[in-house]
Amino acid sequence: MAGQQHYPQGTLYMVATPIGNLADLGLRALHVLDLVDGVACEDTRHTSALLQGYGLHKSLLALHQHNEAEAAQGVVQRLREGQRIAYVSDAGTPGVSDPGARLCAVVHDAGFRVMPIPGASSVTALLSAAGTGGHDGRFVFCGFLSPKATERQREIQAIAGDARAQVLLEAPHRIEALARDLSVLGERPVTVGRELTKQFEEIAQVPASSMMDWLKAGNHRMRGEFVLLVHPAAHAADEDALDA
Known about the structure:
The chain is of the alpha/beta class and 244 residues long. It contains nine helices and ten strands. It has two domains: 2-117, Tetrapyrrole methylase, N-terminal domain (Cobalt-precorrin-4 Transmethylase, domain 1, 3-Layer(aba) Sandwich), CATH 3.40.1010.10; 122-243, Methyltransferase, Cobalt-precorrin-4 Transmethylase, Domain 2 (2-Layer Sandwich), CATH 3.30.950.10. Helix content is 35%, strand content 20%. The strands form two sheets. It has a five-stranded parallel sheet, sandwiched between helices.
């Protein structure tokens, strides 16, 4: 079935990879990764291990945030030669809070096609389990907030002034600082997704003011990758109920 679609030569394929569970790689992604002439990737060691897990062996080209502009030219040259090239980040969808956006822009500017091969997403995974579907369904994807405390606090003040749901990503070494700053949101609910799709996955809903307490309730909670959903402000939810 995956092979029935046309996969033209001279095309860059942006391939989403699992966010933790290897069984989440789609059939189209497997087909494309098997078909392409090479794979550009965020980390060659990580991607080599990923491909080997599926019995695939491909030439790899490192393309990450520190060399994206230069390495993109190498990808364009291979596209000119009629090759099919895939790009993958370490996990999830490339170009979304990951390298890949500049690569796409360079490829578009050079006149070549870019095809998305979608897959697992921590954002939509958390949204599906958070129970906010009774509202208007709109949300803002904020991604990673600034690692600088002053700028991050300014960004959170903007979140506080926005009634829509907000989705944040955070790394384990910064989650405590983020939780502390989010406390200014008071009783506004936050759904915390930790290690989604992995063995020790946790999903919990807590008031923003209590998120630090939730983290400190177990040492293991400071580990892993985090996705956070700041729920719509209470008055927005109330307006939705009146409109229903």
